[in-house]
Amino acid sequence: MTHFPQSCPRGRIPVLTIGVVLFGLLCSLALVWPLARLPIHYPIDVNEAWNALNAERAMDMDALYPSAKGAFFNNYPPLSFYVVGLAGRLLGDNIIAGRVISLLSILAIGINIAWTVRNLGGALGPAILAGLLFVGTTAKDFLGYTGMDDPQLLGQAVMSTGFAIFAAAPRRGRNIAVAAAIMVTAGFIKHNIFGMPLATTIWLAQYDRRMLARWLALGLVLLALAFAICAGLYGLDFFRQLDGPRTYSLSGLLALGRIQAFVIPLVLWIAFAVEIRSDPRMVLVTDLVVAGVIAYAITKLGSGVAWNAFFDWLIGVCVGLGVMLSRIGETRFAKRFGIGLTEGLIVIALSLRLVLPLPENLLNLRASLADMRRQAAEIEPDIQFMRGHAGPALCGDLAICYWSGHQSALDWNNTFEAIRLGRQNYTDLMLRVAKGDFHLLQLNRHSSLVGVAQASGQYRRFDTPSSVFFYY
Fold it and tell me: Phi and psi dihedrals of 135, rounded to 5?
């Protein structure tokens, strides 16, 4: 692959070299808070404990996909639970292990973006800058997913590896086969990542119909094989759970405010693609950006889908930035005002976006850490109480269940989705509590199950500052 050269007057430090150093410093700054909160035993999000409990099920050879008639759902594919579970065995805590994997995944995606830019003919400096832009943007503007125990970024890391391999030689059968195997694997880590496979399909449809047929056939065979393995391991409940309860709404598409996190490189790519004569490499980048938009629009329809819907789009935009900077000398602006000035303006604009506004947690790092440690201390009595009592347990806070060594018979978020869709009846859950089906209940004070458990006469009650326990 021929790479576009970078030019710089002799004796002068290239602007993009300065940009790489600056972006590296800004990325390090953005990662301070995720690294500082990593070891604290307080959930960043309710998904953390849900993922940790499923990882524990995977390691204990328990039912990873229980009956869909129950009250604990698993609508994620299985691979992430084994990865996190194995790491959790090494580190002693699935939630902490998941956080470490999330941070490493962000770095891996940044490397894969740089690799993709190089494979598309981009120069080294722009490639590194593009990878750093992803790391910095994710750590600053998608903080909820940065260093959180969730399979989204791990799946993106594996998927972007497959796309980088495809981009290196998109018409070579070996690359297509390896890319297909890796992308299917990524889909069994998290099943809502399809921007990169879609971009691959669109590009092959434009440029190589013979390889398109091979790509589609191989992908379908691998998918069928993977589903057959899952059916053999988990039974039909795997498919019933994967089609778990979820409502859909067009209102999710209106949540476009977070696009401001990467609007500068998005606009730069659009302007570049309009001005510069297109070639197959540029078309692949445009296909990747467009596929990211499609992936956002489809995934954001589902309730509970958060800012992870933007990640395919963000990856495409970052790849576009690297390719654009590698060919910046071809633009009218650079020809008129010079490459150095053009690169400098872009670096300044992106640097300002990475640093402004400064995140509140970083500005008040000591106070933010103290607050999170205080919250961790508040739930510690709950964890200690649960450790002293046997299950089966029902937890309102899944993190308390996990850190006390219990599984929870109830998954609140998905259960209430099932109730809204009419798949389950809340009355059935209340009847189970009233009959004393659970030996141990951890509830928040506003839960309607508090009154049910109290009236049943089946349990003893114990109150802590943050929870109400019923047990026998």
Answer: -60, -50
Nearest Cα to Cα of residue 160 among 136, 142, 134: 134
Torsional sign, CA 68, 74, 77, 78:
negative
Q: Using CA atoms, how far apart are residues 393 and 329, in angstroms rounded to an integer?
A: 64
Query: How does pLDDT run across 390-430, given as a tens digit for each residue?
Result: 878 999 999 999 999 999 988 877 777 777 777 777 788 88
Task: Answer whether residue 70 is part of any domain.
Answer: no
Q: What is the pLDDT of residues 95-109, one digit of tens each?
A: 999 999 999 999 999
Q: Are residues 321 and 442 in the same domain?
A: no
Please name the helix (run of DSSP H) or strand (run of DSSP E) that holds residue 53, with its range, or none.
helix 46-59
Per-residue tokens: 13:
């430090």
Domain boundary among 309, 328, 363: 363
Q: What contacts 174, CB < 8 A, 6 or more positions away?
A: none
Q: How many Å apart are CA 471 and CA 201, to the nearest integer?
A: 55
Give the chain's length: 472
> Exposed e or buried b for every residue in 227-262, given b needs 16+ CB within 10 A?
eeebeeebeebbebbbebbbeeeeebeeeeebeebb
